[in-house]
Every structure is written in C-alpha cells, then in structure tokens.
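Kindly inspect what follows.
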Amino acid sequence: MAARPHHEIRRGMIIARIWIAKQRRRPRYSFSVIRIYRNGDQWKESNRLGVDDLPLARLALDEAHRWALSREVG
C-alpha cells in the first residue's frame, strides 16, 4: 500500500499534498502539487499543470505553507 499524505488542500482541480517525515527534533515537511482530471469514467492525476492551473496552484501552495508554519509554531 502506498504512503498517504498527511494533509491535502484542494483548490478546484488542483491538490497540494503535504507529507511529513519525522526527524529527531521536528517534523520535515515536503509538498507536491497535482492536477486531477477525468478520462471517461475514471479520475486520473497529473503533475503537469497548464497556464490556467497556475493561479490555483499558487493559492493551494500558499495555504500549504501557512498550514506547515502553523504546526511549527506551537
């Protein structure tokens, strides 16, 4: 079974995924962005974004950044 992200933020068809790797002192966050789309009856994912996807990707990543920072403070 594949590892699951710790948290996801969705803006339209864009998803920012937050992964956590535990370290001794504090967690280390990593991020990925995908675009979901429908191909017939199946939902698929792509890591390629079009020009129209970029504003939503920026919003999702900005929120992911805020989410990670809020976890480090307290």
Summary: The first helix runs from residue 54 to 73.
